[in-house]
Amino acid sequence: MKEQISHYLNDPVQLEKLYRTNKSSFKKNFNMLYPSIQGSSLADFWNTRLNYEADEINWGSKKDFLFVLSIAFLAGLIAKLPHIFSISEEFFYPRNIGFIVFPILASYFAWKHKLALKKVILLAVTTIAAAVFINVLPHFPESDTLILSCIHLLIVLWTVLGFAYTAGEFKAYNKRLQFLKYNGDLLVLSGLICIAGGLMTAITIGLFTLIDVYIEAFYFGYVVIFGLPAVPVLATYLIEKNPHLVGKISPVIARIFSPLVLVMLISYLAAMIFSGKDPYNDREFLLIFNVLLVGVMAIIFFSVAGASESKKSKPEVVILILLSIVTIIVNGIALSAILFRISEWGITPNRLAVLGANLLILVNLVMVTAKLLKVTSKKAALEDVGETITRYLPVYVIWAVIVTFSFPLIFGVQ
Fold it and tell me: How many other CB atoms sit within 10 Å of the CB of residue 60?
């Protein structure tokens, strides 16, 4: 891309088009090229545009902020529905927790990108159809099929959010990568807001308790129940208006935790051998094993998603390779355990869902590891690893759709 930037240096229209094809790659290559082209008015303009960082928090226009407050309030109302209409919390929250967050965030991006009416209708119909489906299923709280459907529905709704975030261009791999990075930034900023909110809650309740005024019921019933759903909405708004706010934090966190997670995984596998515990005969242990697997996958994904913002050194790439290889080993153990359980006790919805997820993750990990190995030999760029990850995302989505909507029909809910 460096050659293209140099070639179009006197053509602002083509330069803008090149920038919009891949903003992060454009910025990285432009900054490498800038020392040799500075002095040109257009080059200086782009340097200011790409590298200027505001000193203050940008809260946007009054209109933007009012819209954000409105949808945050709507999210709180959805969370409050069981209390408003006397709906069982045990029935409502497992099925509808995703509808409190994802459609609200999707509506923000639909509004921000001014999505075409056809795309808005598609988002609305998909969300409503999913809501109707999950809420008409029979109420058997202990049903494995129902639990699986509720869990995988979150992935389906996350995909709806991704469609809105990318303005309907979810097929573009660079858009998907930006979406993954947004998820990392959202987790970081939402966590910080929750910590601050938790401290404020403790202080507020503590102060009122000192004067014998007990506000716990009111505070949790109104302030917390409206405040929690507002957290991802506010965090999203701040990220969009202030990309510099957490843009540098997520890659740093991924950079710090990658080696730590690698050491933890190796230690965990060694300890497992001596502990006598194994996932072959212990269902809860197998469940924790798979949760661990998903968490490590997320670390790898966010590390690569943040890599476009800063060049990774070879040792950091090697750590990612080792982390991927160790995760493949963990995945192999989990996969063999679920195959063992199926051979011993037969197929169940849980075992089939875990088997499918483990197979998909294994294939994805092998692809990512192979690409990372090419990066070390300079046969591929780190951006290619991101492309490998994002091109595989639809496979996860398809499996989530199958589990969410087919399993209750195939296995029943009982």
Answer: 16
Same domain, 280 and 361: yes
Cα–Cα dist 253/246, whole Å: 11
Q: Are residues 85 and 9 in the same domain?
A: no
Eight-class DSSP state of 170: T
Q: How many domains does the chain have?
A: 3
CB atoms within 10 A of CB 39: 7
pLDDT in tens, 201-224: 999 999 999 998 999 999 999 999
User: Model confidence over 284-310: pLDDT tens digits?
Assistant: 777 777 787 888 877 877 777 655 545
* Same domain flag for 202 and 276: no
Q: Are residues 264 and 398 in the same domain?
A: yes
Residue type, 227: G
Q: Which residues of 147-171 are buried (b: 16+ CB within 10 A; e: fewer)?
A: bbbbebbbbbbbbbbbbbbbbbebe
Q: Phi/psi zone of residue 57: left (φ > 0), alpha (ψ -120 to 50 degrees), beta?
A: beta
- Identify whether the C-beta of residue 92 lies closer than 8 Å to the C-beta of residue 81: yes
* Cβ atoms 178, 21 nearer than 8 A: no
Entry pTM: 0.83
